[in-house]
Amino acid sequence: MKRIIREKEHRLDPEIYRGEIIVSFTLCVKDRKELFNQSEIFNTFESQLIIELKKYECDSYIYLFMPDHVHLLLSGKNHNFDIKKCLDRFKQKTGYWLYNQLPEYKWQKDYYDHILRKDEDLIVQTKYILNNPVRAGIVDYWKKYKMKGSTVYNLAEWD
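Above: the chain sequence. Below: its structure as tokens.
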């Protein structure tokens, strides 16, 4: 008899992701394969992210695509909006793109997330994400890393 393995549910209640909260997400490429090392792939995924952010009325304080994973710092624009639904739709659309264009790559099934508490500093969290390529030894200064963006901040003005 064939055993059916069911994917486990995400660890937090979906209702937690609604509203004007700020959530930090890390999405990994399955088997940590390096996918985001070409600007064309980044541009495709960035475009899809912007579409979903607009559709679900969410903002991205920062998004940064490392070679084998993605960091997102997302927030709903008011109390009705569903950040998890926005993220899940982004993963679904880009996963379908991968299936058709680069079938050897897939998203890891789940993702790591962290809801920022009121006392956590948004700027500190944003700078931590921006310095990920520096800590990884890819660049010596975060502004040199190209695969990043924000729908909130003008990163060119940051020091």
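The chain has four helices and five strands.
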